[in-house]
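Task: sequence design from structure.
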């Protein structure tokens, strides 16, 4: 692997081999998502604890302090909205030149395996990897499922992750599921866990993150289950303990409780 590629990955994946990414790219198809109406305000107390920030170029320029930002994973795919006909109908919307201009550590793109636009999204990934390899920029592939959440099982996610790796992604972001080790065991590149819809309780989040880490994930890329929570700083600290300090679910719950008490 070229020095530049290794260096960018090392900025994102910490010396323990783990990472905690904070995605705030939801507005590219959802618009002003609840509690992300003002992204700069939302991330201000959280950004110092993130190993990487997954964001679009528009929000990066408008809302993220260039002097205090963690390494950036730039969202470069899009083209449809939540009210459009098909969320899987995406294309590349940001150039590699722009990624270099913004000094990003990686770029991120969604793929939609099994959808009507599977072919298009996988070609997007292949073309992006080709371009990024020329400049030493890692690609993170996101195994998106659009509105079809029932697809989130081990068989489907293992298929999607393996295809992403085969196409050249250096990291794959995917959902946690039962038998998650079947997903990670079949994927030859690092896997980070996506959050998906907001959970009912913080313990649910701690449980699936802990299970995923035990079964081969190197970290998380969680947004709504952190910044939509009433106590986002407490969530961030508790999850960092699971990821970087090998904390148990109960340990994380206790950390959360102490931080919540401080806030109150």
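Answer:
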């Amino acid at each position: 692997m070229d020095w530049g590629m290794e260096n960018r990955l090392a900025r994102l994946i910490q010396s323990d081999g783990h990472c905690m990414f904070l995605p705030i790219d939801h507005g590219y198809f959802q618009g002003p998502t609840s509690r992300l109406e003002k992204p700069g305000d939302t991330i201000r107390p959280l950004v110092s604890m993130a190993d990487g920030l997954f964001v679009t170029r528009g929000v990066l320029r408008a809302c993220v302090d260039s002097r205090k930002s963690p390494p950036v994973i730039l969202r470069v795919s899009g083209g449809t909205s939540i009210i459009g006909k098909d969320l899987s109908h995406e294309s590349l919307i940001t150039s590699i030149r722009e990624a270099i201009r913004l000094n990003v550590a990686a770029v991120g793109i969604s793929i939609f395996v099994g959808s009507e636009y599977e072919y298009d999204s996988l070609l997007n990934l292949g073309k992006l990897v080709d371009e990024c390899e020329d400049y030493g920029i890692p690609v993170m592939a996101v195994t998106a499922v659009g509105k079809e959440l029932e697809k989130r099982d081990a068989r489907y996610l293992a298929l999607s992750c393996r295809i992403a790796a085969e196409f050249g992604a250096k990291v794959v972001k995917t959902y946690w599921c039962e038998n998650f080790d079947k997903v990670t065991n079949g994927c030859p590149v690092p896997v980070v866990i996506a959050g998906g819809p907001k959970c009912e309780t913080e313990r649910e989040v701690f449980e699936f993150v802990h299970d995923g880490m035990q079964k081969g994930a190197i970290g998380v890329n969680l947004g709504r289950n952190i910044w939509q929570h009433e106590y986002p700083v407490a969530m961030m600290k508790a999850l960092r303990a699971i990821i970087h300090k090998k904390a148990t679910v109960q340990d994380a719950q206790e950390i959360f409780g102490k931080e919540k008490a401080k806030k109150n």
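The mean pLDDT is 96.
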